[in-house]
Amino acid sequence: MAFQKYIKNLRKSRRFHKLLGTSLSLFLLISAVTGIALSLKKEIAIIQPPTTKGVSKNLQTWLPMFQIDSLARQALYTTHPEQKDNPVDRLDIRPGKGIVKVLFDKGYWEVQIDGTTGEVKSIAKRHSDWIEALHDGSIINQLFKLLSMNMLGWGLIFLILTGLWLWYGPKRFRLLKKNYRKQSIR
Questions:
Q1: Which residues contact 109 (CB under 8 A, 6 or more apart)?
Q2: Which CATH number fits the domain that encloses residue 91?
Q3: pLDDT surpasses 70 at 186
Q4: Measured between alpha carbons, how far is 54 from 75 in angstroms, rounded to an integer?
Q5: Mean pLDDT of the region 115-121
Q6: Based on the domain organization, do 119 and 154 belong to the same domain?
Q7: Closest Cα partner for 129 from 47, 20, 28, 10?
Q8: 104 shares a domain with 144
Q9: Which residue, among 23, 50, 41, has the nearest Cα to 135 in the 3D structure?
C-alpha cells in the first residue's frame, strides 16, 4: 500500500513538472535567447555600438555637460530629422575613454561625443537596450517585469526541485522495493 502512495506522489510530481515546464517554456526561451544576445553585446557591434575613444581622460579639459547635450541633440536631429522631439534620457560619462554617450528616450538612439573636442564619434541605435527590456519584461511595463521575473525565478526553483525528485524518486522506489522483497523472503 505504501508503494502505491509513493507511485501516486511521483505521478503527481511528473504532472506538476510537465505543466509548470510547459507554462514557463515561452518565458524561458525568451530569457535564454535574450540572455545570450546580452552576453555578446560588447562583441557584436550591431547589438551595442562599440565605445569610441576621446582625446583626453582629464575631466578638467572637457566641455560642460549642457554643451555636450546640445551637440548630441543637434547631431541626432540633423542626421535623423524624424527624431526632432526625442528628449535625452541620460548622459553616460566614460572618463576612462574620454567619451560621453548621450542616450535618447525613444528609439534606443545613442550619440557618442568626445568630452574634450565635442566631436561626434558615433550615432547609432543601441539594440541592447530593447533586448534587455524584452529580457526582463520591462518592455511591457514595470508590474509585468516584477510578476514575470518572480514567476520565472520561482518556477525555475520548482522545476529544479521536481526534476531532482523525478530523477531520484524512481531510484529510491526501486531500492525500497528491493529491500521490501528481501524482508518478505525472510
A1: 76, 80, 83, 86, 103, 123, 124, 125, 126
A2: 3.10.450
A3: no
A4: 17
A5: 97
A6: no
A7: 47
A8: no
A9: 41
In-domain check, residue 186: no
Boundaries of domain holding 107 = 49-124
Average pLDDT over every residue of 111-115: 98
pLDDT single digits (tens) 29-76: 999 999 999 999 999 999 999 999 999 999 999 999 999 999 999 999
Q: Please, which pLDDT band fits residue 174 given cuts at 50, 70 and 90? A: confident
Is residue 115 a contact partner of residue 108, using CB atoms and an 8 Å limit? Answer: no
**DSSP SS3 for 81:** helix
Domain total in the chain:
2
Write down the pLDDT at residue 54.
95
From 124, 140, 159, the end of a domain falls on 124
Residues 23 and 55 in one domain: no
CA angle 131, 96, 111 (to 5 degrees): 45
Residues 6+ apart with CB under 8 A from 59: 95, 115
Domain boundary among 106, 124, 142: 124
